[in-house]
Amino acid sequence: MTAHEIVIRPIITEKSMGAIGFKKYTFEVARNATKIDIARAVEELFKVKVAKVNTLHVRGHLRRQGRTQGYTAAWKKAVVSLTEDSKPIEFFEGMM
């Protein structure tokens, strides 16, 4: 898999934006990607040094429309911590 297939999109929430000060960035990633794959992909895409990767599976939520109901798609989230000497990711800096 390429780096663009592993890192799908950034997660932009109040909590994830607050963690940027501590050099922690949140991404939606491919469900079959490992922590090592995610670290290499982020290093390749953003030219930074990754210290640690935490992952979690997000279950789909129950949604209703009238009589019918179903679940949204389940996905995988990764919180990537950068090293102290690493430069910040420029994409997120414009949002602060």
UniProtKB/TrEMBL annotation:
Listed GO biological process terms: translation
Matches recorded under Pfam families: Ribosomal_L23
Gene Ontology CC terms: ribonucleoprotein complex; ribosome
GO molecular function: rRNA binding; structural constituent of ribosome
Taxonomy, superkingdom: Bacteria
Gene3D superfamilies: 3.30.70.330
Database matches in InterPro entries: Nucleotide-bd_a/b_plait_sf (IPR012677), Ribosomal_uL23-like (IPR013025), Ribosomal_uL23/eL15/eS24_sf (IPR012678)
Keywords, in A-Z order: Ribonucleoprotein, Ribosomal protein, RNA-binding, rRNA-binding
Similarity remark: Belongs to the universal ribosomal protein uL23 family.
Function: One of the early assembly proteins it binds 23S rRNA. One of the proteins that surrounds the polypeptide exit tunnel on the outside of the ribosome. Forms the main docking site for trigger factor binding to the ribosome.
Subunit structure: Part of the 50S ribosomal subunit. Contacts protein L29, and trigger factor when it is bound to the ribosome.
PANTHER family, A to Z: 60S RIBOSOMAL PROTEIN L23A
Protein name: Large ribosomal subunit protein uL23
Native organism: Faecalispora sporosphaeroides
Gene label: rplW
